[in-house]
Specification:
It contains 2 helices and 8 strands; from the N terminus they run αβββββββαβ. Strands 1-2-3-6-7 form a 5-stranded antiparallel beta sheet, sandwiched between helices. A 3-stranded antiparallel beta sheet has the order 4-5-8. A hairpin with an 8-residue loop joins strand 2 and strand 3. The chain is globular, with a radius of gyration of 15 Å. By secondary structure, it is an alpha+beta fold. The structure holds cobalt (II) ion. The site of cobalt (II) ion (CO) has 6 residues, from helix 2.
Length: 161
């Protein structure tokens, strides 16, 4: 595994629609391992492939709850419900945090590294992290959704995605 360099905003790769993964091979496994290691190194709760300069619909999420690490390849949102508003940050925007509203519940379909399709339901913070990462794969950045930016004082233990 290796820690990769995180792409900071502005960079074109952060604003493009990423390509579908077609090959579920060793290279994909290595990419996921590196993304996971990089996310941990930078204290993030999620990381999308474009954030390490890779044009592929791949993201990892780990909010340190009982769900563990979620690997999402070619994820699709099947359903959303409700609304939540809370602080959000992004590893590609160090030190920048803002309030973002998102659906409170999300149901997704994605593939794991072996190409097995799965569905996952999530609520609250996990749902927020998943939606933030899926947005990255469409070139959508959280800054386009911020209602209000937050100062350091207004933040308590908010982790970046
Ligand atoms: Co992000």
């Amino acid at each position: 595994m290796a820690i990769r360099k995180i792409v900071m905003y502005p960079n074109d790769i952060l604003e493009k629609h990423c390509q579908e993964v077609k090959k579920f091979d060793k290279k994909l496994g290595k990419l996921l391992d590196d993304m996971y290691e990089t996310m941990i190194e930078y204290d993030g709760v999620g990381l999308a492939a474009p954030q390490i300069g890779v044009d592929a619909r791949v993201a990892v999420v780990d909010i340190e709850d009982e769900t563990g690490t979620i690997e999402m390849i070619n994820p699709l949102i099947l359903e959303t419900k409700g609304e939540q508003t809370g602080p959000e940050g992004c590893l590609s925007f160090p030190g920048l945090f803002g309030e973002v509203s998102r659906p409170n519940y999300v149901k997704i379909e994605a593939f794991d590294r072996k190409g097995r399709k799965y569905t996952l339901e999530a609520e609250e913070f996990l749902a927020r992290a998943i939606q933030h990462e899926i947005d990255h794969l469409d070139g959508v950045l959280f800054t386009s959704k911020v209602l209000k930016y937050l100062s350091e004082d207004e933040l308590k233990g908010v982790e970046a995605e």
